[in-house]
Write a structure and sequence with these properties.
14 helices, mainly alpha
């Protein structure tokens, strides 16, 4: 599905000014229509058309972002908010259907214009409930298999914990939204809480889906066969200094690419095995990978070791320094495990290393739980940005709810 997308083919970052202009024009039109007491069905139609336009513009921006830089948070945001806009289009289309079916065209204008916006987060949760149930069930199954094979550790139950939170959030909203009674004040307080809760849930869900899409994009595409350097990201080694299966998979993935490029183009890229020596490791991860490569027939002169790094960020930073020290900078690819490609690419771009990633396969029961950890890591990397967006969404739904009841 994503194999035909081209990476790093644009020099200019995509802009969302078109969406901003469309949004401003739509707000102005809807405001005028409210003042003029235009039919709520027509207002809902305008909002539905706007939402569809937003989906299209965000999808175009998503493709252009991948062509400019696939390893970017914008890739997540564009796909995530395209899903949100699609939900809003469905909400407004439902409003049109209900008004037309029940002949409610005489209702207050604000009922259609603001009511649909106010309930859009809750409706999105209901629309996506089947996906949440299937995704949560898959996470639980994979986690149980992971615990059976790898033993019980806290990190091995992250998927189960996320599943409980996601399904629990859906059930909590469903049952709490069923019982709204009491005075008008009580109903307003109830809707404020449920709408802001749904907004928070909505953001996390959209980010989760967006992260999955972003990683599928970069994992599903092979780097161009014109690379000068292949960075291999380190991880654990055995007591005898040989790579553990996870690390061996990364080396084998890079080795397969090396042989494919050499066969098809005659150009042999230089390996840069990257990883320091931990306190319980007999040699550095870089040296372990070097020994493995030499044993596989790779000439020693085709290997440059980077043996200082202790994290993915340092892998990229120090590997870049090793490459620059040769005086022959060139095109770079990196090899890691499939679930780690997107976040590793973000770290590469953070140190201004324009590299394309490839992912080594891992056991089926390991990938979902690792994806959850990567998702949490991605959110944690930009805590302030996440807090600002979440705060903005919660404030938006709170304001819309208050305006809705004040206007009635």
């Amino acid at each position: 599905m994503f194999k035909h997308l081209r990476f790093d083919t644009r020099d200019q970052k995509p802009s969302l000014w078109g969406l901003a202009v469309v949004s401003a024009v739509t707000i102005a039109i809807v405001a005028v229509m409210l003042v003029a007491h235009i039919s709520p069905v027509l207002i809902a139609g305008i909002l539905c058309a706007y939402s569809i336009a937003a989906v299209i513009l965000l999808c175009v921006a998503f493709v252009r972002q991948v062509e400019y830089n696939p390893y970017s948070y914008n890739t997540i945001y564009h796909s995530a908010f395209a899903l949100l806009a699609l939900s809003q289009a469905i909400t407004q289309a439902s409003t049109i259907y209900l008004y037309t079916r029940d002949g409610m065209t005489g209702q207050p204008m604000v009922f259609a214009a603001i009511g649909g916006l106010m309930s859009s987060a809750k409706l999105y949760m209901l629309f996506s409930a089947p996906f949440i149930l299937l995704f949560s069930a898959a996470l639980c199954v994979s986690n149980i298999s992971l615990i059976r094979h790898e033993g019980f550790r806290f990190v091995n139950v992250l998927g189960i914990l996320l599943s409980v939170c996601m399904v629990g959030g859906e059930l909590f909203l469903f049952f709490s939204d069923m019982y709204a009674s009491g005075s008008l004040y009580d109903i307003i307080a109830h809707d404020l809480f449920t709408n802001t809760f749904a907004a928070l849930y909505l953001y996390v869900e959209c980010m989760l889906i967006g992260t999955i899409i972003a990683n599928l994009v970069v994992v599903g595409r092979e780097p161009d066969l014109d690379r000068d350097y292949l960075i291999i990201l380190g991880c654990g080694i055995r007591d005898d200094g040989t790579p553990m299966p996870l690390l061996a998979g990364r080396v084998d993935r890079a080795l397969a690419f090396y042989r494919k490029q050499l066969e098809q183009t005659g150009k042999a890229p230089v390996f840069v095995p990257s990883g320091g020596q931990g306190p319980d490791e007999v040699i550095s991860e870089a040296e372990s990978m070097r020994n493995y490569l030499v044993a596989q027939g790779v000439p020693a002169e085709h290997i440059l070791m980077e043996s200082r790094s202790t994290s993915t960020y340092e892998n990229m930073r120090f590997s870049k320094e090793v490459i620059e020290a040769t005086g022959r900078p060139g095109k770079v690819a990196f090899s890691t495990t499939n679930y780690h490609v997107f976040r590793a690419g973000i770290m590469a771009r953070r140190v201004k290393l324009r590299a394309q990633g490839m992912g080594a396969k891992t056991k089926w029961y390991f990938w979902p739980n690792a994806d959850v950890r990567e998702f949490v890591g991605i959110l944690a990397d930009h805590r302030l940005k996440q807090a600002a967006i979440i705060g903005g969404m919660v404030a938006f739904y709170a304001i819309i709810t208050l305006v809705y009841y004040l206007a009635l």
